[in-house]
Design a protein that fits this description.
alpha+beta; six-stranded antiparallel beta sheet; 14 strands; 32% helix; 23% strand
């Protein structure tokens, strides 16, 4: 049992106190850990489940590092740091570096947070990816559309959660699309890439000593793609995947190559993959546990694997046995999101 392998003399810092982080906070507590949660919202729902809290924006690297270091030196020793359902690997890596904790290198986390730098690294290493280019103005967007044709995808280089990501067609006002995407980039940087037709999958894997163990494998649902165009809105996912075993294996091999390309030999990687002409292409790779209850609910319900528990073990420096990542079963799980009309629930 993972619980037996952890003791209450260890303290875990979880950088995220949102509602989707709560199952991870609870899991860490079950494992006997003292849990400190950091979040910029003083009323973050995760605080209710934590042993202690730090008020610091998850996106503010310097503030989180400073306050985590102060806590570490004056309140209690922090033994590990992780984020759950929050796209802040750079914050986590920076805290880990400052406190000499297990984690991915800061330069790897920086790569994970910059889609342009990530794509360039993948291209250098010969991985299959959609064609892409960074654009610096509206005129360059027009030129790219003329050269590539429709459809293409425009996205901020450094945004999160699909904010500012649009599928461009003849129906879309390109000036508006440029402004919208740029506005959603913290650094004002925008890129476009070719839209590859085909099914998309989400993966979640753990890298151990350079080997990739893919536990989560979900077919992404885009039934409302036209309804909410030009926004690319995912509407849940299905497990197990309907893709052939051979194609699933090809996806897993690509995820491993992408993780190694980024320099991740130990840690969690979340893959966004598209199957185009029966071949997997990597869209992005995140260096964190996923949101949307994929890691906390769907994966254990589908496979029986406690991925979150194993990620917590790795975060506090304990060795993870690859045998604990082998699926115990392959049950059917379906998730769908609800898009209610604006209004008040009484």
């Amino acid at each position: 049992m993972l619980m037996e392998e952890c003791t209450s003399d260890k303290t875990l810092l979880i950088v995220s106190g949102g509602v989707e982080a709560i199952p991870g906070i609870q899991r860490a507590k079950e494992m006997g850990l003292y849990v400190v949660v950091s979040d910029g919202n003083p009323n973050a729902p995760g605080f209710e489940y934590a042993d202690d809290c730090i008020i610091a924006s998850t996106y503010d690297v310097n503030e989180t590092v400073r306050k985590a270091k102060h806590y570490h030196e004056t309140v209690g020793k922090i033994d590990g740091v992780i984020c759950i359902a929050s796209d802040v690997p750079l914050t986590v890596a920076s805290v880990a570096k400052e406190l000499a904790l297990p984690g991915i290198p800061v330069e790897v986390a920086e790569l994970a947070m910059d889609k342009m730098a990530m794509k360039k690294k993948f291209k250098t290493d010969g991985l299959p990816i959609p064609d892409f280019v960074e654009i610096y103005g509206y005129d360059e967007l027009i030129n790219t559309v003329e050269n590539w044709g429709y459809p293409i995808v425009i996205k901020p280089v450094d945004s999160r959660g699909a904010r500012g990501v649009l599928k461009l067609t003849k129906k879309v006002d390109l000036q508006w699309a440029w402004n919208h995407s740029k506005k959603n980039s913290p650094t004002g940087r925008v890129m476009v890439e070719k839209y590859l037709e085909g099914p998309q999958v989400s993966t979640e894997s753990m890298m151990i000593d350079g080997n990739c163990y893919t536990v989560g494998f979900s077919d992404r649902n885009y039934e409302y793609l036209e309804k909410y165009a030009p926004y690319i809105i995912e509407n849940g996912g299905d497990l197990p995947s309907y893709l052939s075993d051979d194609l699933q294996e090809s996806v897993k091999e690509l995820v491993e190559k992408a993780a190694l390309s980024m320099g991740i030999t130990s840690g969690i990687v979340k893959g966004d993959i598209v199957i185009h002409n029966n071949k997997p292409f990597i869209i992005e790779l995140a260096a964190r546990l996923s949101g949307g209850y994929f890691c906390t609910h769907e994966i254990p319900m589908n496979t029986g694997v406690d991925l979150v528990g194993n990620a917590i073990k790795m975060a506090i420096g304990k060795k993870v046995d690859p045998k604990d990542l082998i699926p115990k079963f392959n049950k059917n799980i379906c998730q769908r999101y609800i898009f209610p009309k604006p209004g008040v629930i009484n």
